[in-house]
Structure formats: structure tokens, C-alpha cells
């Protein structure tokens, strides 16, 4: 059986601020919530469970929709306290304090055990920090090369253990390491996805995709965005929702079974423990 790991980086929309462009107060969460609710509607319609990597700030702004997703057997995982946090640039002590605060906040507010973590922009603190605050697995590895961001071209494509934590890489194709999630799906389109998807699950037993809620919102033109920023918003809103609907229909036709990450790890024999109480 091949599993579908559909994951959501449930975060504020701070793309303009990333490029020094002012945003109206509160618009970052408001924009993301609109897209998040659209995406959730599609996931419920297609009976697809997902793992939601959530910032504490966005979780507070979208508490109702998140609680509904949890009732429907979706999974809540940790992203950060704020999407503007850069835990890789912090001291290990500061990163541990910031992330454990966010983890406790999610667990207390949503009555869940937070087992997993994905760093915003894949900029993770040392794995010892994550292990020590009680996390059991991470999804911090996109095993490809994204110029100007990271180069993980030679990293493993399969689930593996590293420094006491399981790592669940995002799917890319073998050899060429072609990515097929959010940016590439939206800019390269359906033919690109279909050509890559079968090969991306080869040897791993899963197809692991990730998106962001603000991709499903409507965006007016933003003056001053560089090309990369413009491409990050290209074909957002209903166009992207329709494309993801097509992806989910294709996945169903291929017999892929939607799973949360912790559920898949449990099925593969890994012990997913309850909250350790250490933080």
C-alpha cells in the first residue's frame, strides 16, 4: 500500500513582510484563515486526513477550524510560535524555550499530544533541542536543491532515524530530485505533477506533499514583490484549490491511502508515545 501524506504548513501569511513590504495589522492570520477553511472543505469532501504543522499564532486565529479537523482525525504538529521565528538562528536554549512554549500552548488549547515538528522555511534548531522538548519525529527534510534556500540533494528520500528522532522527508523524484509540492505544483502544473508523482513514491511507500493555507486565498497584486514572491502567489485561490482537488482525485484513483504522519509511523511499527510531561 502506498500512503498519501498530505501536510499543511498552517501559518500566517507574511510573504510581503519577508520582502520588507508593510501589511495591515491582523491581515496575516486573516488571509490564511480564509484559505485554510477552503482547503479543509475540500479535504472533508474527499475524506482526506492531513497533518497540520501549526504556529501558535495561527492556531489561536483559527481555533474553530482546527478543532473541527481534529474531530475528523486530522493531526496537529508544531511549526513555530510565529512564522517569523528563526529558531536556527537562536541559541539552543532560546530555541528550546520558544518551541516548548508553542508546543505546550497547542497541547493545552487543543487537548492533543504534539509529536511532530516542521521548521518554518526548514530552518531547524539542533535535533537535540527537539528531542529534549519531547518531540518524536520531524519533517524538516526536503531532499532537493532550492537555489538560495537549501541544498539537500544527497539526503535520504526515505523515513530514517537521526539523533533519536524519526525524519519523514517530503517527496521528490529519485535521481533528479524533482520537487512537486506547493510552488512547483502551482507553477509547473498538472503535467509536471503527474510525471513526477509515481516516481516520487517509488521506494518510500508514500507520497508526501505540503501546501500552505494562504495559497488558497485570493490575493490582490502586491507592489514591490520580486519575481520569486510573485511566483509564490501565482495561480492562488480557486485555481489552486481546483488543482489540489485534481491531485486528490488522482491519488484516490492510484489506490493511495490518506494517513497522518503519526498514523503511518505507528503502522510501520514505531511507538508513538503520549505526552512525556517534560516540557
Q: What's the name of the CATH homologous superfamily?
A: Glycoside hydrolase/deacetylase
pLDDT averaged residue by residue: 96
Q: Looking at the structure, what is the overall shape? A: globular
- The CATH topology annotation reads as TIM Barrel
Reported for the largest beta sheet, the result is: 5 strands, parallel
CATH architecture: Alpha-Beta Barrel
CATH class equals: Alpha Beta
Task: Give the % helix.
Answer: 40-55%
Structural class: alpha/beta
* Low-confidence segments: none
The radius of gyration is 18 Å
Order of helices and strands: EHHEHHEHEHEEEEEHEHHEH
Beta-strand residue fraction: 15-25%
How many structural domains?
Answer: 1
The number of distinct helices, counting runs of at least 4 residues, comes to: 10
Our measurement of the CA-to-CA distance between the termini, rounded to an integer number of angstroms, reads 36 Å
